[in-house]
Amino acid sequence: MAGIVVVFDFDKTIIDCDSDNWVIDELGFTDLFNQLLPTMPWNSVMDTMMKEIHAQGKTIDDIVEVLKRTPIHPRIVPAVKSAHALGCELRILSDANMFFIETILDHLGLKEYFSEITSNPGFVNEEGRLRIFPCHDFTKCSHGCSLNLCPPNMCKGLIMERIQASLGGKKKIIYLGDGNGDFCPTLKLGKGDYMMPRKNFPVWDLICRNPMLIKAEIREWSDGEDLERVLLQLINMVSVDARFISVDCKLQTFSASNLSLPKPLRVRQ
């Protein structure tokens, strides 16, 4: 095993768009969505939109067909399969919703490659319409994160802490994301972990403005081809590092500090 957990954001990371906006736009409900957005939280807007879409005669099958057309870079699927084949545990941490994510992954043949998906609950009710709820019920209490970038329904940093606790420090983490909400989990990563921000997206900008807050090494990417190349290089590098350290512990013949490994890319400030 590689001793690595790769945690992916979903929207604009695995897929090349925002899945909520994609469904709303493709079904022709953009104007109503834009009218509702200033009046209630995002999750509430999406649940209300699913009610309206159902009332207008659109079915779950219509939504599924739209999700099957979701744009994705052609190198993403091979990247996920390669990371899994190299022994990595793969997880998704996303502020999309479970129905959209699982439908897209099923269509791509990727669902079985992920050991855990954490997102906002989404399911089809007895009336045949999609319901979407917040991951954290902010109407009852706050999730407690003081970082203003985290939406009220999900703090990815708190979820990252849970992931880290479950690993017990035994595995390295590679985190991939693009948005403001991916900055909080980035702050939770430690030395020996890696953050892969999408270049020129919000989380990249936040990292560039706050480099001293980041303990993990930063390796940026721009598109699916870039993601595949950087991710597989990192996995191979971390795996080689782990094997050398293991040999050092057993034979005590050399120091891991003498290893010559690729240098991390510097974040421009």
TrEMBL record:
Its cofactor is Mg(2+). Substrate binds at D20, D95. The active site is at D9 (nucleophile), D11 (proton donor). SUPFAM superfamilies: HAD-like. Keywords: Hydrolase, Magnesium, Metal-binding. Mg(2+) binds at D9, D11, D178. InterPro entries: HAD-like_sf, HAD_hydro_PyrdxlP_Pase-like, HAD_sf, Pase_PHOSPHO-typ. It holds the Pfam family Put_Phosphatase. The keyword Isomerase does not apply. It comes from the Eukaryota. GO terms for molecular function: metal ion binding; phosphatase activity. This is Inorganic pyrophosphatase 1. It comes from Hibiscus syriacus (Rose of Sharon).
